């Protein structure tokens, strides 16, 4: 039996059976393999997650909130290809690019998952042990000739492999937040729902990555060979060209040395603006949460459109000085699927993020008489 | 460590042997047992190709998560609106029952029940047909119900016919920010808004029944959206007893609609209302208003937005009853003050907002007026601009006519 399995593994080139050296990422130009291992991006070796050759981890200044999941993000491009820098939009990536995001939690007792700060960089640096984490899913964005494909892979119970689940998945997890615990439905999006965020233009419906933009990536990362600026590193490994000396930089939402406005706008940018932009799926609401939006379009004294339960019986999106009267904070704090924002990607409220937006609104002058 | 390694491979091998994608041990148990079809339906929606007809078999199919379709040219066809039921009772995730982001889409002969948010949303698409679909919250009117029943938005060439919408906490049958729309032969009941046309250009709304809603048929224009609406014909509808207490969410535009409203025109232009039977709507059979009488003010003015209802033509309708028990203390007091305890509001109630900037010789130009050419029906001016202090019981000089509006034509639709 063991012999047969080994043979099986060898035939399929499975990561969990092999060591790092004979694994390199594979760009599947057309077909969608059933297993994550078939992409060869990461593999499990002696109880640790290892990234394959030239698979580069990255982090964002301010990330999307996803039910307190930690995220391991990677980028890989075929040999000899490179992305073109863009100041505002997602970099222009070559065909063959594979971007991955693995959602995981530190394990608590009794099968719970822990609410804790994301320490993915430190884990990678010290050896990413699987012992104390639970891998939930790995989402791939694959740049093919026909455009980007979004593929959600869900990890199995013994954490040896992730399987393609184009129709998504739903898992009941228990979050241990120290003093409290809470059951929640962790939702893996289906392929269409991937587009719900990643098709930031609702007319062209083309999907693309959201995180790998200059302003989100412009920060340092503690790589295996030392700390470096991510844009510099990408350039050094040949993943990015035409990088200017100074690039835009979003605030880190938790960085209290940045202004409240910078932090709040960075938070709204990454959490909301993929839909709430002038051509996005939420342009039906007229609410624009991109970094350059202002006044009524940004929600100030703005009447809600088609908000339904989402109003929380409040009259305007933002009432200056009054977060408790603002629809924006109501929807961010809600966990009712009919009312909450974002509509997808979370079942829990991001208490700390809501507090940031509340503080931001509380600081505003004026009223909506 | 080596052992763990092999166990992993064994599990994987088993998975591969069975070739399953849905066999993962950590898939949550579904409380209400999904039908075989329910388990496959989202995959079918993902794999559909243009020209495909996906048949929804008779039976109740339960879903915990919202469904979505983004492939053009697909038809979803059930066995009848009381036969093929997509039930979202106990839905855990997703802001709607079915979300469609595709063109050349047809959905017919099925029901969508008890979704946590909107029942059917179509966001951006051309050539949309929604036929004989029932959207319903089966517990009846409730603020906790989802907002919209049938909800195409930013769509073009939209046909909605033969549908039934019940219990939406906003609008049962809604079309927003769209162009070229026909809404006919539908039935809307026990919604806050029965049928609502919002920020839409060229809509024909006819042969519908709107009954027992808070407001029967609404034509609205909201600020700060992708397009301003205009040109709607509402004709040959039955708009009766829309007296259900408003159960909308405060802050939504429809939450300000008084119970007992037959037709409400809010800040929209070029509306022709004719040939309808409008009766027993206790606040008023027709209300013409501006968002200025709700929450729109100088603090949220949007440049270029026209908040005034203009070129409204009402003729040849059959009115009976209504206006006798208006909703809310202010309207009740106003009614008593103007018409006495046993009196009733006239068939048309206007809040009095008009764009004085457009006045010529101290009055609105003829083509922008409200014209009420409907037998002995009369119109009241509530004096919103004057703080409702000097209402006028019967506005004189409204017996005029306006050019008739052209019929909406959708290619391929008779």
Explain what the structure shows.
The complex is a heterodimer of chains A (369) and B (414). Chain A is an alpha+beta fold and 369 residues long. Chain A has 2 domains: 232 residues, no CATH class; 103 residues, no CATH class. Helices cover 19% and strands 22% of the residues of chain A. Chain A is built from 8 helices and 16 strands. In chain A, a hairpin with a 4-residue loop joins β12 and β13. In chain A, α6 crosses α8. Chain B is mostly beta strands. Chain B starts with a helix and ends in a 33-residue tail after the last strand. The N terminus of chain B is likely disordered. At the A-B interface, α1, β12 and α3 of A face α1, α2, β3, β6 and β8 of B.
List keywords for this structure.
heterodimer, A: 369 residues, alpha+beta, 2 domains, 3-stranded antiparallel sheet, 8 helices, B: mainly beta, 10% helix
Percentage of residues in strands of chain A = 15-25%
* Overall spatial form of chain B: globular
- Hey, roughly how much beta strand do the residues of chain B contain? 35-45%
Q: Taking Cα atoms only, what radius of gyration of chain A do you get, to the nearest Å?
A: 21 Å
Q: Please state the average pLDDT score of chain B.
A: 91
Give a nutshell description of this structure.
The radius of gyration of chain A is 21 Å and the shape is globular.
Topology of helices and strands:
The complex is a heterodimer of chains A (369) and B (414).
Chain A: H1 2-12, E1 42-45, E2 48-51, E3 56-58, E4 70-76, E5 83-84, E6 98-106, E7 113-114, H2 120-126, E8 128-129, E9 133-144, E10 147-155, E11 162-164, E12 169-176, E13 181-188, H3 191-198, H4 214-217, E14 220-223, E15 226-229, H5 230-236, E16 240-241, H6 260-272, H7 327-333, H8 351-362
Parallel strand pairs in A: 5-16, 7-12
Antiparallel strand pairs in A: 1-2, 2-8, 3-4, 4-6, 6-9, 9-10, 10-11, 12-13, 14-15
Helix pairs in contact in A: 6-8, 7-8
Chain B: H1 2-18, H2 36-47, E1 53-55, E2 59-62, E3 65-69, E4 75-77, E5 84-87, E6 93-100, E7 105-113, E8 118-136, E9 150-161, E10 164-166, E11 171-176, E12 179-184, E13 187-189, E14 193-198, E15 201-206, E16 209-211, E17 215-220, E18 230-235, E19 238-240, E20 261-266, E21 269-274, E22 277-279, E23 284-289, E24 310-315, E25 318-320, H3 329-339, E26 348-350, E27 370-373, E28 379-381
Parallel strand pairs in B: 1-4, 2-5, 3-6, 4-7, 5-7, 6-8, 7-8, 8-9, 8-10, 9-11, 9-12, 10-13, 11-14, 12-15, 13-16, 14-17, 15-18, 16-19, 17-20, 18-21, 19-22, 20-23, 21-24, 22-25, 23-26, 24-27, 26-28
């Amino acid at each position: 039996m063991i012999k047969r399995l080994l043979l099986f593994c060898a035939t399929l080139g499975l990561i969990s059976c092999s060591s790092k050296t004979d694994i390199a990422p594979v760009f599947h130009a057309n077909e969608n393999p059933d297993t994550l291992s078939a992409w060869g991006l990461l593999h499990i070796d002696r109880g640790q997650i290892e990234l394959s050759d030239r698979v580069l981890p990255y982090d964002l200044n301010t990330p999307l909130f996803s039910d307190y999941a930690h995220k391991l993000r990677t980028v890989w491009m075929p040999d000899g290809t490179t992305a073109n820098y863009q100041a505002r939009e997602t970099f222009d990536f070559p065909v063959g690019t594979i971007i991955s995001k693995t959602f995981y939690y530190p394990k608590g007792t009794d099968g719970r998952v822990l609410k804790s700060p994301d320490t993915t960089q430190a884990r990678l640096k010290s050896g990413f042990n699987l012992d104390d984490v639970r891998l939930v899913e790995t989402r791939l964005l694959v740049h093919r000739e026909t455009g980007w494909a979004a593929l959600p892979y869900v990890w199995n119970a013994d954490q040896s492999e992730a399987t393609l689940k184009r129709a998504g998945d739903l898992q009941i997890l228990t979050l241990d937040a120290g003093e409290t615990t809470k059951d929640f439905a962790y939702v893996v999006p289906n392929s269409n729902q991937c587009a719900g965020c990643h098709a930031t233009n609702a007319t062209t419906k083309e999907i693309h990555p959201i995180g790998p933009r200059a302003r989100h990536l412009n920060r340092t990362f503690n790589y295996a060979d030392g700390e470096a600026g991510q844009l510099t590193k990408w350039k050094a490994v040949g993943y990015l060209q035409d990088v200017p000396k100074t690039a835009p930089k979003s605030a880190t939402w938790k960085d209290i040395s940045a202004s409240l406005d910078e932090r709040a706008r960075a938070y709204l940018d990454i959490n909301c603006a993929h839909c709430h932009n002038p051509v996005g799926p939420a342009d039906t609401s007229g609410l624009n949460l991109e970094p350059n939006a202002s006044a009524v379009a940004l929600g100030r004294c703005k009447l809600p459109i088609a908000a339904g339960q989402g109003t929380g019986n409040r009259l305007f999106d933002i009432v200056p000085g009054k977060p408790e009267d603002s629809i924006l904070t109501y929807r961010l704090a809600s966990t009712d699927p009919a009312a909450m924002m974002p509509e997808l990607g979370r079942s829990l409220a991001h208490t700390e993020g809501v507090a940031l937006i509340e503080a931001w609104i509380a600081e505003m002058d004026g009223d909506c008489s | 460590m080596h052992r763990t390694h092999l166990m992993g491979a064994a599990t994987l091998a088993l998975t591969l042997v069975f070739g399953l994608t849905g066999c993962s041990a950590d898939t949550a148990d579904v409380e209400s047992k999904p039908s075989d079809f329910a388990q496959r339906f989202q995959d079918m929606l993902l794999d559909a190709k243009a020209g495909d007809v996906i048949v929804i078999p008779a039976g109740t199919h339960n879903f915990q998560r919202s469904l979505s379709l983004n492939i053009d040219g697909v038809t979803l066809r059930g066995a009848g609106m009381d036969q093929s039921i997509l039930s979202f009772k106990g839905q855990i995730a997703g802001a709607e029952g079915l979300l469609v982001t595709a063109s050349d889409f047809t959905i017919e002969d099925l029901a969508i029940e008890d979704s946590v948010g909107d029942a059917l949303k179509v966001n951006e698409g051309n050539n949309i047909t929604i036929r004989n679909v029932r959207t319903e919250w089966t517990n009846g009117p409730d603020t906790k119900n989802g907002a919209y029943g049938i909800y195409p938005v930013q769509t073009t060439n939209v046909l909605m016919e033969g549908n039934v919408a019940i219990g939406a906490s906003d609008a049962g049958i809604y079309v927003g920010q769209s162009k070229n729309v026909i809404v006919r032969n539908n039935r809307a009941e026990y919604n806050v808004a029965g049928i609502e046309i919002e920020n839409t250009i060229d809509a024909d709304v006819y042969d519908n029944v709107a009954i027992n809603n808070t407001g029967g048929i609404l034509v609205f224009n909201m600020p700060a959206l992708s397009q301003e609406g205009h040109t709607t014909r509402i004709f040959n509808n039955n708009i009766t007893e829309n007296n259900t207490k408003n159960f909308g969410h405060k802050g939504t535009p429809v939450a300000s609609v008084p119970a007992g409203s037959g037709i409400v025109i809010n800040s929209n232009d070029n509306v022709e209302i004719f040939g309808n039977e409008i009766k027993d709507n206790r606040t008023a059979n027709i209300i013409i208003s501006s968002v200025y009488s709700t929450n729109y003010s100088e603090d949220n003015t949007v440049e270029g937005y026209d908040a005034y209802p203009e070129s409204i033509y009402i003729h040849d309708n059959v009115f009976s009853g209504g206006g006798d028990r208006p909703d809310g203390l202010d309207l009740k007091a106003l009614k008593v003050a103007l018409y006495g305890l046993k009196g009733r509001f006239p068939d048309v109630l206007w809040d009095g907002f008009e764009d004085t900037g457009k006045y010529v010789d101290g009055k609105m130009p003829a083509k922008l007026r409200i014209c009420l050419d409907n037998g002995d029906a009369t119109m009241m001016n509530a004096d919103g601009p004057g703080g409702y202090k000097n209402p006028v019981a019967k506005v004189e000089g409204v017996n005029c006519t306006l050019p008739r509006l052209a019929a909406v034509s959708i290619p391929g639709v008779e």
